[in-house]
Design brief:
Elements lengths: L1 E9 L3 H11 L8 E9 L6 H8 L5 E5 L5 H11 L4 E5 L3 E3 L3 H11 L5 E10 L5 H5 L5 H4 L9 E2 L10 E5 H6 L17 H11 L4 E13 L6 H19 L10 E2 L2 E2 H20 L5 H22 L16
Parallel strand pairs: 1-2, 1-4, 2-3, 6-9
Antiparallel strand pairs: 4-8, 5-9, 6-8, 7-9, 10-11
Helix pairs in contact: 1-2, 9-11, 10-11
Length: 325
């Protein structure tokens, strides 16, 4: 008998959560599985509690409340409460396939040395995506939360990571290795990479992961994610995340710094921005890579300046910087 905990962390998305929980009522639960569903309310102000109550009759829900804002805080709350030996994660904007839980159960039994698992994530678009997004979908997998690493169940390669909307861990590993509260989404802040950072830590200990293609879900991609504004904000957040996660360790400190930021980063954003504008004049789709590089460089600048304010200045402060649309 394998005990499984499924966890969903939610913040002010009651309508989407309602659909997610409704779909979970269609899960096929193997006879050798005992399971629970943790729903962590991360300080929501909408109808989240009413939605949870409505589904408690049909699902083995244990409701949790995490008052400290932040995805990592909510995840750690679920880890502390989990009773299962396997902890499966999904999101409040996801529809799971009926065999989803069973696929993870089989993988956990068949790969006893594996510490974590990841499954396929298909897009479920609220409206038709623009051509520039479809043409660059491989580059935008993280932004759209789409994951497909092939049809074969196998060990994950070193540079392959499951996405948070569809992943599982041996619970004992998470009890020992928590999510970093300095990372992960907090409100509308775009900092991410809490699960990737944790998986990297597991890698460093020789713990392997397994790709489970039969553990499939659909992720609801709202129309706001299909815009150029969201593209900028996502990759700006990716730049901020890289600096916050690595404290500029992976950013070469070459040449002069302005306000604690390597000067070459300012040159990088200028070059990428101009390249993106030039390509937009020539093509409807080719500008995306340069535009995302500019956004990421800008995010690195913003976060590096925030870090610089927290330590004694070593160079003259740069002038105040505002966001670029």
């Amino acid at each position: 008998m394998l005990r499984i905990t499924v966890a969903i962390c939610t913040w002010n998305r009651a309508k989407l959560l309602d659909r997610t929980l409704s779909q979970m009522e269609n899960l096929h639960i193997p006879s050798n599985v005992e399971w629970e569903l943790l729903v962590v309310n991360n300080n929501s102000t909408d109808d989240t509690e009413a939605v949870i109550t409505r589904h408690q009759v049909a699902l083995p829900i244990r409701r949790l409340f995490e008052p400290k804002q932040g995805h990592s805080n909510a995840r750690n709350c679920a880890v502390s409460a989990a009773r299962g030996e396997l902890l499966i994660w999904t999101d409040d904007d996801v529809l799971v396939e009926p065999e989803w839980l069973g696929a993870y159960n089989e993988a956990a039994v068949n790969w006893p040395e594996a510490g974590y698992f990841g499954g396929a994530i298909e897009p479920w678009f609220e409206c038709k995506p623009p051509a520039w997004l479809l043409e660059n979908s491989k580059h935008l997998e993280g932004m759209l939360v789409i994951r497909d690493l092939g049809p074969d169940e196998r060990y994950l390669f070193l540079n392959e990571y499951p996405f948070g909307a569809n992943m599982a861990f041996r619970t004992e590993l998470l009890k020992e290795n928590r999510f970093d509260p300095n990372l992960g989404l907090t409100g509308n802040d775009a900092i991410r990479a809490d699960e990737i950072t944790l998986i990297r830590a597991l890698h460093s200990r020789g713990i392997q992961g397994v790709w489970v293609p039969r553990a499939r879900v659909k992720h609801f991609v709202i129309k706001q994610r299909l815009t150029r504004d969201y593209l900028w904000e996502y990759f700006r957040g990716a730049g901020r995340t890289a600096v916050r996660r690595d404290s500029l360790e992976d950013v070469p400190q070459v040449g002069v710094t302005w306000g604690g930021v390597p000067r070459w980063l300012f040159r990088s954003i200028a070059e990428s921005w101009m390249q993106a504008q030039w390509k937009r004049l020539r093509s409807q789709t080719e500008w995306v890579l340069a535009y995302s590089r500019a956004a990421e460089a800008w995010g690195m600048i913003v976060e590096a300046r925030l870090l610089a304010r927290k330590r004694p200045p070593v160079t003259a402060a740069a002038s105040s910087l505002d966001g670029i649309p």
